[in-house]
């Protein structure tokens, strides 16, 4: 072979190798960037959720509850949320008591903020929450009314594990705002099934116990807080 031609071919091969290395380097860099973008922000260890941001905290569910799963949901195209569900099941595979921990934020496509009607405040562990307490004549039916809601998403996750929400029940809602702009929130829902002969005030749909029966509301708030650990990291 002509040595000149061999030299030309060698140079071309070197250029090709160099180009391949460059493209490989770019691809590896992009892959590393993607891995950073999808890094795990939260994970579950036993009955503890470890959150790296919004808020940076550890949240431990009381003994007797088991973690059944988590899911990511989109809410009306305006917000995204991560749901983590812990259940203490009873007869008929009913979630007799449950915790839903939801980390939610509005998307950058809007300027919405989280706003709630007048709610009381309570310190739980290292964080301050606003809360309310309501009774439901049929919690499952109420949450199923809006199939795009986070409540309906909770029902679907339970159904995947052959579990169902109780009918006559009390729901404690606790909300913490990790940032001053109120565009992110940590929502903790605690639900508890009621016996048929319960004397908890009940009406068609839902009843706000904070106003109708403050003492009852405080009782169930304490049920929700009992042995629930909320600690900043």
Structure, explained:
The chain is α+β, with helices and mostly antiparallel strands and 233 residues long. The chain has two domains: 1-39; 40-232, no CATH class. It has five helices and twelve strands. The protein has helices at 3-37, 139-144, 150-160, 209-212, 214-225; strands spanning 42-45, 48-52, 56-60, 66-75, 79-89, 95-106, 120-124, 127-136, 169-176, 184-193, 206-208, 229-232. The strands form two sheets. Strands 4, 5, 6, 7, 8, 9, 10 and 11 form an eight-stranded antiparallel β-sheet that branches. Strands 1-2-3-12 form a four-stranded antiparallel β-sheet, with no helix packed on it. A hairpin with a 2-residue loop joins strand 7 (120-124) and strand 8. It is globular, with a radius of gyration of 25 Å.
Overall shape: globular
Rg is: 25 Å
Number of helices, where a helix is a run of at least 4 consecutive DSSP H or I residues: 5
**Kindly state the mean pLDDT as a whole number?**
87
The secondary-structure class comes to: alpha+beta
Helix fraction bin: 25-40%
Tell me the number of strands. Answer: 12
SSE succession: HEEEEEEEEHHEEEHHE
Low-confidence blocks of residues: 1-11, 13-24, 26-38
Strand content: 35-45%
Query: End-to-end distance, in Å?
Result: 70 Å
Number of domains: 2
**Major sheet:** 8 strands, antiparallel
């Amino acid at each position: 072979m002509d040595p000149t031609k061999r030299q030309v071919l060698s140079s071309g091969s070197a250029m090709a190798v160099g180009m391949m290395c460059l493209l490989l380097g770019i691809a590896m860099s992009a892959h590393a960037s993607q891995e950073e973008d999808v890094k795990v922000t939260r994970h579950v260890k036993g009955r503890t959720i470890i959150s790296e941001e919004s808020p940076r905290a550890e949240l431990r569910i009381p003994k007797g509850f088991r973690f059944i799963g988590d899911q990511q949901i989109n809410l009306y195209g305006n917000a995204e949320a991560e749901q983590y569900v812990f259940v203490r099941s009873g007869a008929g595979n009913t979630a007799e008591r449950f915790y839903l921990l939801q980390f939610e934020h509005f998307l950058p496509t809007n300027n919405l903020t989280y706003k709630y009607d007048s709610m009381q405040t309570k310190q739980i562990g290292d964080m301050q929450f606003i809360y309310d307490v309501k009774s439901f004549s049929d919690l499952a039916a109420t949450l199923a009314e809006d199939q795009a809601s986070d409540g309906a998403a909770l029902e679907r996750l339970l159904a995947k594990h052959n579990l169902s929400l109780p009918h006559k029940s009390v729901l404690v809602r606790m909300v913490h705002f990790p940032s001053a702009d109120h565009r992110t929130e940590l929502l903790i829902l605690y639900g508890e099934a009621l016996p048929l002969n319960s004397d908890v005030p009940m009406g068609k749909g839902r009843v706000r116990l904070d106003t109708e029966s403050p003492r009852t509301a405080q009782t169930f708030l304490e049920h929700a807080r009992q042995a629930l650990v909320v600690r900043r990291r």
